[in-house]
Design brief:
Blueprint: E1 4-8, H1 12-24, E2 28-32, H2 35-45, E3 49-53, H3 61-70, E4 77-81, H4 87-96, E5 99-102, H5 107-117
Parallel strand pairs: 1-2, 1-3, 3-4, 4-5
Helix pairs in contact: 2-3
Length: about 120
C-alpha cells in the first residue's frame, strides 16, 4: 500500500521536485502552495506525513504543524526553511516538529528523515 505525503511550499519548483522524488519512492503525493490549502488537503486525504515550508502566505508551516498535531489524525511533520534561522529558532522548530531541514537540502537527507519517521514506507 502506497503511503501518502502532503508537501506544502509556496515555491512551485520545490513542490515539483518533491513530487517527482517522492513519487519515484512510491509515495502518493498531495501538494499545496500555502498552509491553508495544505490544511484543507490534510483533512481530506489524511496523509501519513506532512512536509511543509515554514514561511508561507495564508497559514505558516508552524501553524499547519500545530493544526496537524491537534487534529484527530496527528502524523509526523517535517519543517523546511530556506530562510536562515538562528540556532535558538532552529532548536525551537526541532522541538515542535518531527524533523527539520534547512534549504538547500539533499534528497538523501529527506529520504533518511522519512525512513526514520515512516520506517516501513521505504525499501
Amino acid at each position: 500500500m502506497s503511503r501518502k505525503v502532503l508537501v506544502v511550499d509556496d515555491d512551485n519548483t520545490i513542490r515539483v521536485l518533491m513530487q517527482d522524488y517522492l513519487g519515484n519512492l512510491d509515495f502518493e503525493i498531495y501538494h499545496a502552495s500555502d498552509g491553508k490549502i495544505g490544511w484543507d488537503l490534510f483533512q481530506k486525504h489524511k496523509p501519513d506525513l506532512v512536509i511543509t515550508d515554514i514561511f508561507m502566505p495564508q497559514m505558516t508551516g508552524v501553524e499547519l504543524l500545530e493544526a496537524v498535531k491537534s487534529s484527530d489524525h496527528p502524523v509526523p511533520v517535517v519543517l523546511i526553511s530556506g530562510v536562515s534561522l538562528s540556532d535558538a529558532e532552529i532548536q525551537m522548530q526541532r522541538e515542535r516538529a518531527d524533523g527539520f531541514l534547512e534549504k538547500p537540502y539533499m534528497f538523501w537527507q529527506m529520504k533518511d528523515l522519512i525512513s526514520k519517521l515512516l520506517p516501513d514506507a521505504l525499501p
